[in-house]
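User: Run a structure prediction on this.
Assistant: Running it now.
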Amino acid sequence: MQTIYTDRSISSIEIKNILVADVVLTLAFALVFSGGLGSLFGSGGSFVGFLELVPIAFVAVSLSFVLHELMHKIVAQRYGASAAFRASKDGLLITVVSSMIGFLIGIPGATVIFASSFSKKQEAMVSLAGPLTNFGVFLVFLAIAVFGNSYLSQHNYLTTLVGTTLFISVYIAFFNMLPIYPLDGSKVLRWSKTVYIGVLAMIFIFFYVTAVMYFQIYSPIGLIVNLLVVLVLALVMSSIATGIRL
């Protein structure tokens, strides 16, 4: 078992774990957006497109995933707990393998929290800190998309960066809010069904906004179906996820 530093600083071990998870998740998202491994090296493959997507995915993942995990740590510390991010070897493997087939189950690690006692509300607040951070990232980039539309329309790379960040930020929020232990959603649901449903409603709205703006998907039915598919696949993987040693 890895040594966990229980002080409130960010140790070199924690930084290394975050960087590894960040890089792996970045490559995984870039691979998924490229159509998976088969599309990458198949006839008419898009390896160049994959390389172009890597820096875009890195910015989006760093803002959406790294800040998500750091906010878990900060809020846990506010409640008097110690916390440290730890990458998971099994989770990294699942992240890589799933991205190869064109569907991402992103569980590269988690913020491990040490608390002598946590109420359900405190545990839920720590869990909510991550998805709410994703909401913040989403709203900032939505404002950039709206108010900087005329400029972005002349720069396709920046348009892709903004759209990718919008999608990744809300996707990470959605995945973490699935009601599967040890994901954030299970802890929020245990504390308040009303809050849980409210957060999911916001996630759906953000997904829909992104779908309309960047994918020209105007029917909410198709979006609902896609989210249900993700939910079913996540439930199928839950037995694996719960067995991961973080």
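The mean pLDDT is 83.
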